[in-house]
Amino acid sequence: MAITGAEDGSVRISSIGQSSQHRVLPQLTGHQESVEAVGFSAQLPLAASAGVDCCLRVWEYNTCVERATCVHPDVVTRMAWHPTMPMVITGCADGVARCWDLRTGGLVQQYRGHTAVIQDLVLSPDGSMLLTGSDDNTAKVFLTTGGSAAN
C-alpha cells in the first residue's frame, strides 16, 4: 500500500502490488488545504494525514472511513508514527509537538520548547525519544514518557 497527500487537500491510498493488481482506492476527503504529511500505522489498519488546515485525520484504510480528527491550533508540518504503539506525534507551526492516541483521537502529551515552526521530527526505533528540529535554529530531544527536553 502507498498513501499520498496533495496540495489540493486530497489523500489517496493505492494498492501497489504487481501492475495487473494496482488499484487506487476512493479518495479520502476531509482536508480543506494542502496535506503536508501522511503515513500508515504498523499496529492497526489505520492511515493518517495532516496539513495546513490544522488537522490530523485518521482513516481506516480498509473502508476509507475517517475514524478521528485531531484539531491543532496551527498548521501541522510533520508527523511520525510511534513504532510500537497506535500513536502519532505531530509537529506544528506553533513550535509544539503533540502525541495523539489514534484509537480515541485524544491528545496524550505535548512537547514544548521551540519558539518557531517545527520543520522535522523523528522517533527513536523503540519510541522512547523524540527528536525535533525547528526554524528557531534548535534541535530538541524529548523523552516520550515524560515530556522533558534537552537542547
Automatic annotation (TrEMBL):
Native organism: Dunaliella salina (Green alga)
UniProt entry tagged with the keyword Repeat: yes
Alphabetized UniProt keyword annotations: Repeat, WD repeat
Each WD repeat, start to end: 28-63, 69-110, 111-142
Pfam family, one: WD40
PROSITE patterns the record matches: WD_REPEATS_2, WD_REPEATS_REGION
Protein name: WD40-repeat-containing domain protein
InterPro entries per the UniProt record, alphabetical: WD40/YVTN_repeat-like_dom_sf, WD40_repeat_dom_sf, WD40_rpt, WD_repeat_multifunction
